[in-house]
Amino acid sequence: MLKEYKSIADVSGPLMIIDDVKGVGYSELVEIKLQNGETRIGEVLEVQEDKAVVQIYGGGSGINLRDTRVRFQGHPLEFGVSLDIIGRTFDGLGHVIDGGPAPIPDQSRDINGMAINPMAREYPDEFIQTGISTIDHMNSLVRGQKLPIFSGAGLPHKELAAQIARQATVLNDHEKFAVVFAAMGVTYEDAQYFINSFKETGAIDRSVMFINLADDPSIERLATPKVALTAAEYLAYEKDMHVLVILTDMTNYCEALREVSAARREVPGRRGYPGYLYTNLSTLYERAGRIKGCKGSVTQLPILTMPEDDITHPIPDLTGYITEGQIILDRDLDHRGIQPPIDVLPSLSRLKDDGTGEGKTREDHADTMNQLFAAYAKGKEARELAVVLGESALSDADKCYLKFADAFEKEYVNQGFDTNRTIFETLDLAWKLLTLLPKSELTRINDKYIDKYYPKTDETED
């Protein structure tokens, strides 16, 4: 039998302290009945002897300590899952907000999830196509990977997130694919952009959306990624689907975590964030992966804005330690109108070599990627040299690389937010760009691939 308490000792921001409790557990769901009949929910953060600290979803404003009643539910916060959640839009706590009826759940699952046993993990080695050349070719995403996107204030990560959600797919058409999209702390305008983008392109039919608005209580942001990942795990491990989870913006999530930590009067760590920020982020990121014996997979693309474009800031810094690489958006490319402004040189996917090649993408994938990377790096060096000494001081080889770098950015990187390229179209474009260099410079490509894929022109035929 559930016990009801009226022994609230204090309310501070989103936290409530309750005295004289018995049999209360960590992460237990709490129902809070206000004096005016309003009901809010909370979660137990800490239990010490007969005192419980409760985190209130919805904030602590308007609570009368004497007349408010609290009931502990005996289980953690749960989300009802079924295949009917696909195509639906929910708020940050998992309540339907698209105007339709609530889906009938097959089961209710604890949003905190379970850590994947490392011995049960299957190594990620299967390609996911996003339709974006700089990701698919240069920094390939594989099933079960967690590959964050590092952005900055004002950069078009919103458009990039929507593009990936619309276009992402697996190459084998017979395999079931879904997208779980979670937006945290976004404006109403941004939320409508995501919803309209998904509906107009039909992507909503294979997506599950979770929207936490900027004016929602920030404490709800802490539950949003957990609810989204709970939905993804059900679709992947129960229904054998390949699920891509896009989480934007993780910076807003971390700010909410800092707010709760400050309310609990905890000793702050770097930049005021709690010392357990790394551990907390790992509980989200490590829910991606493939499990032996399961056909499905959970792949994560967390998106975060780096405060002041500082990659050493605790959020991107700790994210980089946990995840397998990063995609970096560049402000200079954005100022020059190149969209999406992905800088391939500092970007990295640590698992790209395992998910590409013959039988997965195409045999020339790795060689052309390495050649493009090296040529673009030399082209950028030539561009910097031309700024200092003038273009006339460049050698003929430097001028070729400079011309290549310009073409690479304008034709390869600058594909816009509406162009969906297959990996094979991207590889063909790469070979076209490599014709700007003398064949003698293609030192990173196997000769058999040059003979097979190098575009035939009048000059090469002669």
TrEMBL record:
Pfam families registered for this protein in UniProt: ATP-synt_ab, ATP-synt_ab_N, ATP-synt_VA_C
Protein name: V-type ATP synthase beta chain
GO biological process entries: proton motive force-driven plasma membrane ATP synthesis
Role of this protein: Produces ATP from ADP in the presence of a proton gradient across the membrane. The V-type beta chain is a regulatory subunit.
HAMAP family linked: ATP_synth_B_arch
Keyword Hydrolase assigned: yes
Family: Belongs to the ATPase alpha/beta chains family.
Annotated signal peptide: none
SUPFAM superfamilies cross-referenced by the UniProt entry: C-terminal domain of alpha and beta subunits of F1 ATP synthase, P-loop containing nucleoside triphosphate hydrolases
Molecular functions per Gene Ontology: ATP binding; hydrolase activity; proton-transporting ATP synthase activity, rotational mechanism
Limits of the ATPase F1/V1/A1 complex alpha/beta subunit nucleotide-binding domain: 131-349
Location of the ATPase F1/V1/A1 complex alpha/beta subunit N-terminal domain: 9-73
UniProt KW keywords: ATP synthesis, Hydrogen ion transport, Hydrolase, Ion transport, Transport
Occurrences of domain ATP synthase A/B type C-terminal (ranges): 355-454
Keyword Transport: yes
Gene encoding the protein: atpB
